[in-house]
Amino acid sequence: MCVAFPGKVIEINDEFGKVDFGNGTIRDNILLSLVNAKVGDYVLVHAGYAIQVVDEEEARKSIELWNEMTNDLPEEKKKQDFNEVVGGES
């Protein structure tokens, strides 16, 4: 199963972008070359790659679902699972 997490593109530098996943979590080196994203777009990220552009409402629904699924997990486990989905910590 493939899991991807939505984030907002806040900066683009060549093929890579800075993506804000909320709650102070920003990743600098998300590969954007597979999608036609621009600053302000929401993208689904899996293993450091943006795999799809989604609208803001879809992104919010995905974040709410993730929060529901991980609500009972310890904070460290939540962080570990998130990092596995989006591609590590920066």
Q: What would your notes on this structure say?
A:
By secondary structure, this protein is of the alpha+beta class. The protein has a single domain (5-86), classed as SH3 type barrels. It is 30% helix and 34% strand. The protein contains two helices and five strands; from the N terminus they run E-E-E-E-E-H-H. It has helices at 56-70, 75-86; strands spanning 5-13, 16-20, 26-31, 42-46, 49-54. Strands 3-2-1-4-5 form a five-stranded antiparallel β-sheet. The model has no long low-confidence stretch (mean pLDDT 90). Belongs to the HupF/HypC family. GO terms for molecular function: carbon dioxide binding; iron ion binding. This is HypC/HybG/HupF family hydrogenase formation chaperone. It comes from Acidianus brierleyi.
CATH class identity: Mainly Beta
Rounded to the nearest angstrom, the radius of gyration is 12 Å
What best-fitting shape do the alpha-carbon axes yield?
A: globular
Number of strands: 5
Main β-sheet description: 5 strands, antiparallel
InterPro entries: Hydrogenase_HupF/HypC (IPR001109)
Family: Belongs to the HupF/HypC family.
Pfam families: HupF_HypC (PF01455)
Protein name: HypC/HybG/HupF family hydrogenase formation chaperone
